[in-house]
Fold these 2 entries.
Entry 1:
Amino acid sequence: MADITTDAKALRVSPLEVIGHRMVATSSPRVTINEIPFETQIGLRGDASKAAFNRAVKSALGVAPPKEACTAVEAGDRRILWLGPDEWLAVAPDDTGADLLGKLEGPVAKAGGAAIDLTANRTVIVVSGPDARGVLEKGCLHDLHPRAFPTGRVVGTLLAKSQIFLEKTGDKPETFRLYVRASFARHLAEWLIDAAAEFAA
Amino acid sequence: MLLIRCPYCGLRPEVEFSYGGEAHISRPEDPNALNDEEWGDFLFMRANQKGAFRERWVHTHGCRRWFNVLRDTSSHEIHATYEVGAPKPDVPGAAKPVRKPRARKSAKP
Ligand SMILES: [Zn+2]
């Protein structure tokens, strides 16, 4: 008798699962491209000058939302990205969404803000290695040199005509996280595979 | 390509933005008090002037916020960008602030 699973987690497919093997095949010591599927993403709106809002976010995520524009903060395996003057994206590992939302929704709403599950909106692509910047520079209008784009910087911008949040997460080697909408992910991944081909050993 | 200074994100390439037309046009408090010509003025009539012009832009692909730009429509020079609700910056070198859009004379109902 065939087993019919009703476990949604066993059935789900990430936006880039079908070309994951090609991202791996293109990766080299010079640059690697990987999807991190199903990362928990929670949209936060609120007034960062309100202590209650900061407290609510900090007690759930371990860190308060960054006030400086275009920056991200990290706390263990969680991070908060600045998206706008009253808007942030909290990112955490797969499977932590229900727990985090439970902790955030009430207190954030009480502080006049909102916390909304946006997990299915975007997937995360990590581009890392000595030539990671060289790959991204082929389609990104920002100056990605470390003097202008240090670790901890995050910008909403276009890469290969797709809207992304681009976050720099490390310098040794240079590592970037690309948050791309699910429906644009395949196009962007194909573009990255093509752009990285010349660096393959 | 223009480089536009988003009041929130700093200097960014033009492709991250979208244009929103003339700034500082507020919706009439009571649309029912207007006749057709006045309502048409509000909806469609814009100054379209040559020189320094106050206009709205939105940082579509960045922080998604609307703001105002003081731009020279003939040279593309951007004199200033400012948040919605912030005081209007002066036009450099101009004796008077930017001319308000024409108030077309229209008969009251
Ligand atoms: Zn912006």
Entry 2:
Amino acid sequence: MEKPVYNTDIVRSFVHWSLLWGLVAILVGVIVSLQMVEPDLNFPPYLTFGRLRPIHTNAGIYGWGVGVIFATFIYMVQRLCKTPLWSNKLAKFQLWFFNATIIASAITLLLGYTTSKEYHEMEWPIDVMVVILWVVFAVNILMTILKRQEEQMYISLWYMMAALVGVAILYLVNAAALPVSLFKSYSAYAGTNDANVHWWFGHNAVAMALTAPPLAMFYYFLPKTTGVPIYSHRLSIIAFWSLIFMYLWTGAHHLLWTPVPDWVQTLAMAFSVMLIAPSWGSVFNGYLSMNGQWHQMKENYLVKFLIIGLTFYGLQTLQGPMQAIRSFSAFIHYTDWVPAHIHMGTMGWVSMISYASIYYLVPRIYGRELYSVPLANMHFWLTLVGQLVWSISLWVAGVLQAGMWNATNSDGSLTYTFMETMVEMYPYWWARAAGGFIFFLGIIIFIYNLFMTVRKGKDVVAPIVTAAGRN
Amino acid sequence: MDWAAILYLGVTFGLFAIFVAIVIHTCRDKHKETGEAPKYTMLEDD
Ligand code: HEM
Ligand code: HEM
């Protein structure tokens, strides 16, 4: 059979743009972390913490996270299905529409237009753009799967399909709103229903955008990098279906102790704890795939990114269920503990796997050897140290904050004023900013290394499958 | 119990039944070889 001609140009473009949005997200992350300790760094009305924070979160999730999803899904689907992309024209349209959507989001958020629903802040005209963008992407990938030349469906394809369908449903349901002007709309739901739908969206966005796609990448790039297959494909399938079955019920763990009905909260709590099983099904599968290959952790920088990224996923999916338990939630909810959880997921799990995927892709789509493996190793350590400093300092801060909020005098009055608890946070917020800066240095080195790979990297005659990552 | 609750429970148990069927199908010995085959395709050259 003749080898199909895959579209790599579009993968290159998505890699470039996701790197740019990733850089913006992380830079704005460092800026907002400094604004929390140095209020003079707020420049009203546009460059205040309140306006920049949603730019950071949306650029992080939709520019960086989803940009990498676009690049890797288009790369993986063609190879897993042994067929070229269904429509190159549609993919090109998707690229420019993606950037237009990100830019429109950034401008409107800076101008202060917001629905005030977290992770869904953009007003309705941008919702329409997001829906068009996702439909175009989903149709292209699903049609490529439909005309596949490979009968077997590898696990990555299942996770990809789940993400495509899942994001579409979640976004559409949560976007239901009544527009009253070009930049103002009111949610179609009211009160607790609105909150419930919103966090059903919020948590499943974590599942469908920040869990399923990195798992698709992990399962694809790990065997490609180590040169050995995953431990068990059947285990991966069972973990996949249990994850899909359980995730949908957990959204209300964001609303514990609120007026949402008790039984809804209890249901969310129970399903969140059950989620440990499918999550760790994947974690064990990943670790067991390394049987006899652990020496590669020392020799191959790609394996380091993948396995430490997976370890962060494992920790994240133990910590998450814990936070979903009412009594624990009563202690840490509203404290700095929660951003520490989030950033272990976004900086540790999502970014590490994204870095590994891009390191794997760039030499192949440009036919060049990576410019510098020592720089890649340095990037790994900066990422790891930056993330740990970020999260550990805020876990400590969160426990301290919760302790101070709960402290009472013998007459029942509060021991500390809110202001006193805020002042206590400063050293930890400085530490968080320092961790963020270390992480930021990492992405600068990453981008420099990739740039030099394209400019000066040695040509490789044939794509290297297993040895490319070794030093 | 009102109709909404019955529907809710029905959907939950319906989904659970589908999930159990998938697990049984995947775990059956008969399915062992075909179930594991896709992982070896990953060793082929891209
Ligand atoms: C078994 C899996 C997980 C469970 C049960 C879980 C549970 C939770 C809970 C209970 C909260 C709310 C904390 C609070 O506000 O009191 C939360 C927040 C969050 N989690 Fe997780 N988590 C899991 C995995 C993940 C993963 C893999 C990510 C990936 C990045 C992630 C990202 C987030 C984000 C972004 C929020 C913040 C939502 C907000 O803005 O309030 N979680 N998680
Ligand atoms: C240098 C790295 C980063 C720094 C310094 C940073 C900093 C921050 C800060 C200061 C906040 C506000 C926390 C608060 O309101 O108390 C925040 C929130 C957030 N960031 Fe980052 N961030 C970084 C990387 C990332 C990345 C890579 C992503 C996504 C891929 C991300 C996603 C988020 C999310 C989802 C929130 C909302 C958290 C919440 O609801 O509590 N961050 N970040």
